Amino acid sequence: MPTHTSPADLFRHSLRLLLDGDISGWLALWADDGVMEFPFAPPHWSQRLDGAEAIAAYMRRYPDHIDLHDFPDVRIHETAAPETIVVEMRGTGRLVQTGAPFDMTYIAVVTVKDGRFAFYRDYWNPLAVLERGADFAGSAR
Question: Who has greater pLDDT, 85 or 128?
């Protein structure tokens, strides 16, 4: 795995992997005990994934649901804790199931330890996807 010198570098690399559809490569960026949280997840959707295996199960079918084309607006903010960043971004593409456009704004709080994602709290709006009548990527519901 390439060495990334900062949490921001690791995050930017992870976005390139998602755009390439390289879910295996993206998953390799995670610590074995990494945690991913979705505070705004609707009822019956995953709100917390504990460990790399749970994250892998959630993400395995991501490309079956969303065809990402770009992350046009990525702003990475450093915090007082050097291992933690706050990211504002937008992802665009299309929903595979319906062909509808995908345009989602996210805020993520990301902590990196030993060069891997250790914690990722993903604030996204699931209602925007549900309104388009699609099942969301990897929604381990």
Answer: 85
Residue 109 in tokens: 């709080």
CATH architecture type of domain 7-130:
Roll (3.10)
Question: To which residue do tokens 């976005």 refer?
Answer: 15
Q: What is the pTM of this model?
A: 0.87
Per-residue DSSP letter, 26: H
Q: How far is CA 12 from CA 47, 94, 102, in A?
A: 24, 21, 20
Average pLDDT, integer, range 67-79: 96
Identify the three-state secondary structure at position 62: helix
Residues with Cβ within 8 Å of residue 14, at least 6 apart in sequence: 26, 29, 117
| Sign of the dihedral defined by the CA atoms of residues 2, 75, 65, 42, in that order | positive
Q: Report how far residue 7's alpha carbon sits from residue 124's, in angstroms, rounded to the nearest whole number.
A: 20
Residue 8: is it exposed, middle or buried by C-beta count within 10 angstroms (0-12/13-18/19+)?
middle
> How far is it, in rounded angstroms, from Cα 138 to Cα 59?
5
- Kindly list the domain boundaries of the chain, sorted by start residue: 7-130
pLDDT of 33 reads 98
**pLDDT one-digit tens code per residue, 74-85:** 999 999 999 999
